[in-house]
Design brief:
heterodimer, A: 225 residues, mainly alpha, 9 helices, 0% strand, globular, B: 257 residues, 6 helices, elongated
């Protein structure tokens, strides 16, 4: 039972990855957007050199947040255009497995963008050295973003406003997560006392667990017809 | 998609006795509460007149939490039972809750101006309360954005369940974040809370709170919820009748044939 569930989820995630490998539509879009966002932030903070260094974690996560919104919108739009969701709903798999599959693929996309951004930010924003603790924060952060984004994108897909509604629904709900990752990243970057790092990472994991549980329970109702 | 949805029965024209009782009680209690808060209670020695806002500020938040809690339960109920009236109650809960939450935010802001010397600060408590308001505002946008009635109710229910997390967060954040400057009324305040006051220090303060708390956190929200719920039931019936008329086959006009 559990094995079937996991296999279905992995199959769906694999399908998304394969489609992405062949079309390279999503990652290219997200990466380009992320680069432009970094550029815009850098211009916006131009006159404030020390401020720019302090703002690195903010720039990183706000960029990732918006890039992931872009990715989620595109991902559900692709499914809708090709009737993918109808096919998924017809398939004899649990709705939770669909959620988990889409979530894994989305989390991986966001993570790839994050890993691309980290060295770039280190160079462009003149960080003295790259803090390895960030690597502990980025994966759970991306997972949380993907969990809440996958649920809400499946919801906004069915509304009249479609793409434009996702940020409005996602941003307030994602704020606790953003808050925790920002604090944790700032601790990792040395802007906050090192002792806080563990507190914020555990809070981050707790928020991830809440988002995942909510997604599992509610996805069924979002994708019904 | 089956369009033949049964809508809950149209509420009776005449308000039920309990609601009429609530109307009278609320209308009587509001001026009494205001009198006790504005006249009867002693002026706070350190904060002065502006402290009187507090009798409205904290109870309004609990009223909002009550209404949002009602919306949460109604949304869970809708997902289980799929009856329209649950969704109607959720609408009432969110709208009443949002109104009271705005009363809470605005009164707090006015109080903060002389006490904290700023209208607004990004304190954890204030931030989470603002996030709560924005989440429920997003709920309203979401609800307006879906045309299919059943789909709209389903999505709104899902989002209302998610949104309640922000209410819990606002309730507990004052205990888990020691760096807040917002004073706690029940239990000890954070060490750097600015502008807290002793309930026992000034005569009449605890009486004013005891009188106003049930008014703003129970009586007023319940009355508003009930009225809004009845209104929403009517809206649903109206929508359904409209759909029936619009979908009815066209009959030839008299004299046309």
């Amino acid at each position: 039972m559990l094995r079937d569930f996991l296999r279905a989820a992995l199959t769906i995630a694999g399908k998304d990855l394969r489609a992405e490998l062949r079309s390279r539509e999503l990652l290219g879009l997200m990466a380009l957007f992320a680069l432009l966002a970094i550029l815009v932030f850098s211009v916006a903070l131009e006159l404030d050199r020390p401020g720019r260094q302090d703002a690195v974690s903010g720039v990183l996560w706000v960029t990732l947040l918006f890039a992931s919104i872009l990715g989620h919108n595109r991902s559900v739009a692709l499914e809708r255009e090709h009737g993918g969701f109808d096919a998924l709903l017809l398939a004899p798999v649990a709705r939770g497995a669909i959620f988990l599959g889409k979530l894994l693929a989305n989390a991986l996309f966001t993570l790839i963008i994050a890993l691309l951004l980290l060295p770039l930010l280190t160079i462009l924003y003149n960080l003295p050295d790259f803090p390895p603790a960030l690597l502990l924060i980025v994966p759970p952060g991306c997972l949380g973003l993907a969990a809440i984004g996958t649920l809400l994108a499946a919801m906004t897909m069915q509304t009249r406003a479609r793409d434009s509604l996702l940020p409005v629904l996602l941003l307030p709900v994602a704020l606790p997560l953003l808050f925790a990752v920002l604090r944790a990243s700032n601790a990792a970057l040395g802007n906050l006392p090192q002792a806080e790092l563990q507190t914020w990472i555990s809070l981050l994991l707790l928020i991830d667990a809440i988002y995942l549980a909510a997604g599992f329970l509610l996805f069924e109702y979002v994708l019904e017809s | 998609m089956n369009q033949a949805i049964e809508v809950c029965a149209l509420p009776a024209e005449r308000q039920p006795r309990a609601l009429r009782l609530l109307n009278v009680l609320t209308l009587l209690a509001l001026p009494v509460g205001l009198y006790v808060a504005l006249v009867h209670a002693g002026t706070d020695t350190s904060q002065g007149q502006v402290q009187r806002l507090f009798y409205l500020h904290m109870p309004a938040f609990f009223g909002a939490a009550l209404a949002f809690g009602g919306a949460l339960l109604a949304s869970i109920g809708y997902l289980y039972k799929r009856e329209t009236c649950y969704d109607s109650f959720a609408v009432a809960g969110v709208e009443v809750g949002l109104t009271l939450a705005l009363v809470n935010l605005v009164s707090g802001s006015i109080w903060a101006r002389p006490i904290w010397n700023t209208w607004w600060t990004w304190d954890p408590r204030l931030t989470s309360a603002a996030v709560m308001c924005l989440t429920y505002a997003a709920w309203l946008v979401l609800r307006n954005g879906i045309e299919n009635a059943q789909q709209r109710r389903r999505m709104a229910s899902v989002y209302a369940i998610l949104a309640f997390v922000t209410v819990i967060l606002t309730l507990i954040i004052i205990r888990i974040r020691p760096d807040t400057i917002h004073p706690a009324v029940i239990g000890p305040s954070a060490a750097n809370a600015q502008g807290s006051f002793e309930l026992a220090a000034t005569p009449g303060v605890s009486t004013a709170l005891l009188v106003n708390f049930p008014i703003w956190s129970l009586l007023l929200p319940l009355t508003l919820l009930w009225h809004r719920y009845r209104l929403q039931l009517r809206v649903e019936v109206l929508e359904q009748r409209k759909a029936l008329v619009l979908n009815a086959p066209l009959r030839p006009r008299r004299g046309d044939s």
